Amino acid sequence: MAEVRAMCAIGLRGQLGHEGGMPWEGRHEPAFAADVARFFEATFGHVLLVGPRTKRSIPQWAYADRVIVEIRSSDPPEDVLAAFPSRVVYVGGGPAVWAAYAPYIQHWDITRLPYDGEADRWFDPAWLTIGRAS
Ligand SMILES: NC(=O)c1ccc[n+]([C@@H]2O[C@H](COP(=O)([O-])OP(=O)(O)OC[C@H]3O[C@@H](n4cnc5c(N)ncnc54)[C@H](OP(=O)(O)O)[C@@H]3O)[C@@H](O)[C@H]2O)c1
Prior knowledge:
Largest sheet: 5 strands, parallel
Bound molecules: NADP nicotinamide-adenine-dinucleotide phosphate
Number of domains: 1
């Protein structure tokens, strides 16, 4: 079975996304730049599962060093994860993806960024306590 991890960055109230991008898009202060760098460092050499919208925001160069897989709601999570035995698999969002894969996630890496503006996608703390997939 894959080692299943999730990594995300949230604003001060759980903001995750806005209009298809990160809510803090265009902010270049050190905390925001360091978060992006950490994401690509952590996922280096691993599998990254993403919904279609999130996939559109991944730069082309990132495909060289990680296996990036677009997942759809028609793909049962058990089948997707079974395709990567003994790999580290990062569940990369968006929210519907984290909700569906939460029972399988063994490790959450959440960075709280100093952002308190608008959002249309939100982190749900219930993902952390959803129980375990049987
Ligand atoms: N802050 C962060 O760390 C972070 C990380 C990632 C994304 N985001 C933000 O989140 C937003 C994008 O997320 P999004 O939710 O709008 O779109 P998304 O990335 O396309 O993810 C949601 C879609 O994934 C598909 N999906 C795949 N497997 C699924 C499953 N088992 N169950 C349910 N749905 C599944 C569904 O589309 P189908 O039904 O069409 O298959 C669903 O609508 C952007 O604003 C992005 O910047 C933020």
